[in-house]
Design a protein that fits this description.
Length: about 230
């Protein structure tokens, strides 16, 4: 049986399965009690909107640390152990343009830089949440395959200890978007202290162990110093 939050649209409820029960979920939108699979479903448009207003950080913090979810079934409250948290972006995200890569979410152009959004997804996955981008027509197929995968004894899901997920500070997050990862950003900021000083001495980055020349090349491209694109 699949449990779906009562705030989900009726067409989504109808898409998923015959053995669906609509309940109130305090976290997530789709729950498979048998496997402990908990899915937060967001349309592509809502995903971008939740970055804008800060909801995404709060929701991901809760999703990454939840251990049990209380659900009321047939008048009885039960605690479902959560083993696999998933953020499912329902729709499409793709870059638009050459020099400034803005995101098209379900055909609508947003103000967001494509690579900034991709790095946001990377930071979410570092918290232990699996992120999937699923086209509109494949939701039911995706959920079905996830349920089958989650029930296999052979799969491994790495979850961080309770409470370890924290949002990077603004300086680190900014540098991570430029250089392509939190680890590199932390190495650079440890050496130079601030993003401003780090950019002033960007020519020295290649000498830092764990950074490499691609971090400098990527930063130059994103800041508009280099006209050509490189594969990040």
């Amino acid at each position: 049986m699949l449990l779906i939050d009562n705030r989900e649209p009726e067409h989504i409820q109808a898409l998923l399965a015959d053995d669906v029960q609509v309940v109130k979920l305090t976290t997530g939108d789709i729950l498979d009690p048998e496997s402990g699979l908990l899915i937060e479903r967001k349309t592509a448009r809502d995903f971008i909107g939740s970055i804008d207003d800060g909801r995404l950080d709060t929701q991901c913090s809760r999703l990454s640390t939840i251990e049990n979810l209380k659900v009321r079934l047939a008048g009885v409250s039960i605690n479902v152990p959560i083993k696999i948290p998933i953020l499912l972006i329902h729709g499409t995200l793709w870059p638009q343009g050459k020099n400034v890569l803005k995101v098209k979410a379900n055909g609508e152009l947003t103000k967001w830089n494509y690579w900034a959004v991709m790095m946001k997804i990377v930071s979410i996955q570092q918290s232990g949440i699996i992120v999937l981008i699923v086209p509109q027509q494949h939701l039911a197929e995706c959920v079905d395959k996830l349920r089958k995968w989650a029930k296999k004894k052979s799969h491994r899901v790495v979850r961080k200890p309770k409470g370890i997920w924290t949002k990077p500070d603004p300086k680190t997050e900014f540098m991570a978007l430029l250089v392509g990862g939190l680890k590199k950003a932390k190495i650079i900021l440890k050496e130079y202290g601030t993003p401003g000083m780090a950019l002033a001495y960007m020519h020295e980055w290649s000498s830092l162990k764990g950074v490499g020349p691609m971090a400098m090349q990527r930063t130059r491209v994103l800041l508009g110093d280099v006209p050509s694109m490189v594969p990040f």
